[in-house]
Amino acid sequence: MKTINFLSFLITPSLTREYLQMLPFILESRFNDIDCIIYRDQSDYFIPAFLRLVAPYKKKLYLNLPLQNVKDILPLAKCFDGVHLKGAYQHLIPQICEYNQQRRRDSKHTLQIGFSAHSVEEVLLALQLGADYCTLSPIFATPNKGAPLGIQSLQSLPVEVRQKVVALGGIISKEQIEQIKHLGVLGFASIRFYEK
Fold it and tell me: What is 7-195's CATH topology?
């Protein structure tokens, strides 16, 4: 099975001024290889600069910060297409779904909800709670991330679930991307693939 709309997510490493200076070059040289960008950092400090730099490229943007409260997340997420919640914040999914329901009633922009899962069980629960998609990681060996789950973890998912899963972890080659692409998943996400 092959995914028709196979999406690619660039995940930012911990942000620095040097990385932000390099980001436009990455986006220009890999423009057709990137559908979405996940702002992943420990703070919101670089959000204004990040948004200015990526605006001309018209990519879908997701916010991934270690915020534990929806009231802290929502004001920061107003310039993003969605939020991507870290594994410890699965309990926030229903609250963001409730926020989205209110926004729909008011005919306003809603946020897509992504979730970082590290097991098939976490994927299933997050989707049941209302997440729009989940990353599942690590698929391949990744420094400091424990044993890889392997391609078989993606294959074990029901087909309708795979379409909401983004493979993550240790994806550094086009060959790995091709392996994943034919499993019917939503896409792949990587930091290191885009740094080459």
Answer: TIM Barrel (3.20.20)
Give me the percent of the chain exceeding a pLDDT of 70. 98
* Residue boundaries of the structural domains of the chain: 7-195
Please tell me whether residue 163 adopts helix, strand or coil conformation: coil
Q: What does the DSSP assignment read for 71-135?
A: HHHHHHHTTSSEEEE-GGGGGGHHHHHHHHHHHHHTT----EEEEEESSHHHHHHHHHHT-SEEE
Q: How far apart are CA 138 and CA 149, in angstroms?
A: 6
Is the CB of residue 180 less than 8 Å from the CB of residue 157? no
Sequence letter at residue 129? L
Phi, psi of 99 (to 5 degrees): -60, -45
pTM for the predicted model, two decimal places: 0.94
Which residue reads 């600069």 in tokens?
A: 49
Residue 160: its H or E element: helix 159-162
Per-residue pLDDT of 58-87, as tens digits, reads: 999 999 999 989 999 999 999 999 999 999
Of 146, 98, 91, 137, the residue nearest 116 (C-alpha): 137
